[in-house]
Amino acid sequence: MQHYTVGQAARLLGVSTDTARRWADAGKVPTYREGPDGSGRRLIDGRDLAAFAADLAHRDQDEDEPVHSSVRNSFPGIITAVKLGDVAAQVEIQAGPHRLVSLLTREAVEELGLEVGMQATARVKSTSVHIDRT
Q1: Which of 58, 82, 97 is the last residue of a domain?
Q2: Which of 2, 11, 71, 83 is the most exposed place for a label (fewest CB within 10 A)?
Q3: Do 125 and 85 lie in a common domain?
Q4: What is the dihedral of CA 2, 46, 13, 131, to 10 degrees?
Q5: What pTM value is reported for the model?
Q6: Which of the four pLDDT bands, split at 50, 70 and 90, describes residue 130?
Q7: Number of helices followed by number of strands (H, E) in the chain
Q8: Domain extent for 121
């Protein structure tokens, strides 16, 4: 499973590293320490970050929160759901306050190795959402 540093999580959530660190300190997002003795840097499990990102998007934004924006219709975020059918698949990405859903083939999802908690970028063109594994 993929894991993220607090700084990487902050970038995916569209907040400052200090904000992400405060959330971790407050226990809002679970962290663990790297290394056998637990003395290394703090990490966040990808599935935990995905759940937190989805939950965060549903909360009311405080006035102190930064404004989120997209550059060239590219939305870096974290995969929060993967639903596989026999032929088709649905992948959801939480990119800051934006939830993007892409319908694609099951084969494409499997070739990319997409799973919940993984970092990905959704690119939007007209009515299509393309996903790049990052």
Answers
A1: 58
A2: 71
A3: yes
A4: 60
A5: 0.57
A6: confident
A7: 4, 8
A8: 74-133
Place 59 in a pLDDT band, splitting at 50, 70 and 90: low
Residue for token pair 């970092």: 119
Nearest in space to 133 (alpha carbons), one of 125, 115, 40, 124: 115
d(CA 67, CA 59): 15
- CA-to-CA distance for 43 and 76, rounded, in angstroms? 19
3-state secondary structure of 34: coil
Task: Cite the beta strand spans of 38-111 per DSSP E.
Answer: 42-45, 74-84, 88-95, 98-105
Q: Which amino acid is present at 20?
A: A
User: How many CB atoms sit inside 10 A of residue 23's CB?
Assistant: 20
Tokens representing 81? 């759901």
